[in-house]
Amino acid sequence: AEAVYILRELAPFSRPALLFSGGKDSAVLLHLAVKAFAPQRPPFKLLHIDTGHNFPEVLAFRDARARQTGLQLIVRNVEESIERGSVRLGPDQSRNAAQAVTLVEAQQEFEFDALIGGARRDEERARAKERVFSHRDAFGAWRPRAQRPELWSLFNRHIGVGEHMRVFPISNWTEADVWAYIIQEQIELPSLYYA
């Protein structure tokens, strides 16, 4: 119920996008979004920042879910950022960290004012400090000390020119909550989860 409430709080944003990789957390998030806005389609696009290291089953699932929901899927690749020179990686560096640059480039390209993600506070210590509505400046930077209070589930959704919000509806969930919800709702996942 909390996640559905948070998704509905996105109403003031004119250009939101849901970050959708086809993994379990984003599958749950998309399921919640469809539920939150039924019988209408969710009022946003899907955005995937592809590292180039995804399983083919996950990409096929991602594309199928986009078609099933009728939501436009936008894919931006870390490889394109490398070719442009905005990302430079050493021979042993992971592309996962480089996703942040490609994400900011996509946010600026499409002028998204809210990016909805499946990050959870239990995943790492840095995320434990992040708010549900996480304000980002014009450069896409998160400043932990400038986070706005979220007392009594009141969210400050104000953004200035060039700024945007990152919104995490399942921020308070745990890994166990995600799996319990997948089972309860019988949410489809990529075939590799069943191997």
Order of helices and strands: HEHEHEHHEHEEH
How many angstroms does the end-to-end distance come to?
A: 31 Å
* Beta-strand proportion: 5-15%
Question: Spatial order of the strands in the main sheet?
Answer: 3-2-1-4-6-5
The rounded Rg comes to 16 Å
Write up this protein.
Helices cover 35% and strands 13% of the residues. A 6-stranded mixed beta sheet has the order 3-2-1-4-6-5, with helices on both faces. The chain is of the alpha/beta class and 195 residues long. It has helices at residues 2-8, 24-37, 56-69, 78-84, 99-110, 125-128, 175-185; strands at residues 16-19, 45-50, 73-77, 114-116, 133-136, 164-167. The longest helix is centred in the N-terminal third of the chain and has 14 residues, at 24-37. Helix 2 (24-37) links the parallel strand 1 (16-19) and strand 2 (45-50). Helix 1 crosses helix 2 (24-37).
Quickly describe the structure:
With 195 residues, the protein is of the alpha/beta class. The protein has helices at residues 2-8, 24-37, 56-69, 78-84, 99-110, 125-128, 175-185, and strands at residues 16-19, 45-50, 73-77, 114-116, 133-136, 164-167.
